[in-house]
C-alpha cells in the first residue's frame, strides 16, 4: 500500500511539472523601446538565438551590433542612435535564420533650453541653459542685441546640462535671443525685456532736390524795353 502511494505521488509530480517546463521555453523576439527622443539612442535585445545578425532599420543612423547580454548570454544586446527625422519605423534582425521585427517611434525634436529672467533691470544678469541630451546642441555662445556681451555656457551638470550668464545692456526694450542647433537647421527663439521706457527716436524730414532736366527747353530771353520820355543824347551842341 505504501509503495503504491509513493508511485502515485511521483507520477503526480511528473505531470505537474511537465507543463511548467514547456511554458519556460521562450520564443525568440526582438525587443526595443516603443518611443525614443529625437537625437537619442535606442536599445535592442534579440533572442534567444544561437546566432544573430545586426539590427537594421531606416530609423537608425547605422546598424546596431549585438553582443551577448550579461543577464542572458543566449540573447544579443546593443544600442545605437536614431535618425533625426520623426516617425514610426520597423527594425529587423536575423535570429537563427528567422526574421524578427519590432517597431519604434522617433519623437519630434524638442529644444530644451531656458532664458531667465524674462524681465531684467538695465545692466542686470541674464542666465541661459539647456540639456544637450535633447538632440539639439549649440556650438557657440548665445548672442542678442540686448546682451552687453555674448552669453557663454561655462557651467556643466548631470545629464548633459549646461548654463551660463551675461549682462543686459542699459537700453530699455524687448530683445530676442536665438538658440541655433549645431549641425541641424532647427532653432528656438526666446525674448526678454529690459525694464524702463525705451528711447524714442525722431527722424528729421528729408528734402529732395529735383535735378535739372537737360532735355527741357531753355527759357527765351526777355526783350529790353527803353523807358519813354527819356532825353536823347547828342554831340553836345545847341540848336540854332
Automatic annotation (TrEMBL):
<keyword id="KW-0732">Signal</keyword>
<feature type="region of interest" description="Disordered">
    <location>
        <begin position="189"/>
        <end position="240"/>
    </location>
</feature>
<feature type="signal peptide">
    <location>
        <begin position="1"/>
        <end position="23"/>
    </location>
</feature>
<feature type="compositionally biased region" description="Low complexity">
    <location>
        <begin position="197"/>
        <end position="210"/>
    </location>
</feature>
<protein>
    <recommendedName>
        <fullName>Ig-like domain-containing protein</fullName>
    </recommendedName>
</protein>
Amino acid at each position: 500500500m505504501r509503495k503504491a502511494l509513493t508511485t502515485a505521488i511521483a507520477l503526480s509530480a511528473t505531470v505537474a511539472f511537465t507543463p511548467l517546463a514547456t511554458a519556460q521555453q521562450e520564443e525568440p523576439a526582438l525587443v526595443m523601446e516603443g518611443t525614443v527622443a529625437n537625437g537619442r539612442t535606442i536599445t535592442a535585445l534579440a533572442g534567444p538565438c544561437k546566432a544573430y545578425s545586426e539590427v537594421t532599420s531606416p530609423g537608425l543612423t547605422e546598424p546596431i551590433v549585438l553582443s551577448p547580454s550579461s543577464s542572458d548570454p543566449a540573447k544579443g544586446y546593443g544600442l545605437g542612435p536614431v535618425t533625426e527625422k520623426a516617425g514610426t519605423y520597423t527594425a529587423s534582425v536575423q535570429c537563427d535564420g528567422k526574421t524578427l521585427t519590432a517597431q519604434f517611434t522617433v519623437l519630434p525634436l524638442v529644444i530644451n533650453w531656458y532664458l531667465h529672467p524674462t524681465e531684467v533691470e538695465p545692466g542686470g544678469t541674464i542666465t541661459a541653459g539647456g540639456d544637450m541630451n535633447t538632440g539639439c546642441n549649440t556650438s557657440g555662445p548665445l548672442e542678442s542685441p540686448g546682451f552687453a556681451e555674448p552669453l557663454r555656457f561655462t557651467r556643466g551638470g548631470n545629464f548633459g546640462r549646461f548654463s551660463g550668464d551675461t549682462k543686459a545692456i542699459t537700453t530699455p526694450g524687448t530683445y530676442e535671443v536665438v538658440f541655433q542647433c549645431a549641425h541641424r537647421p532647427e532653432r528656438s527663439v526666446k525674448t526678454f525685456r529690459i525694464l524702463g521706457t525705451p528711447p524714442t527716436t525722431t527722424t528729421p524730414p528729408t528734402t529732395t532736390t529735383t535735378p535739372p532736366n537737360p532735355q527741357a527747353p531753355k527759357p527765351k530771353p526777355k526783350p529790353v524795353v527803353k523807358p519813354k520820355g527819356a532825353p536823347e543824347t547828342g554831340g553836345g551842341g545847341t540848336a540854332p
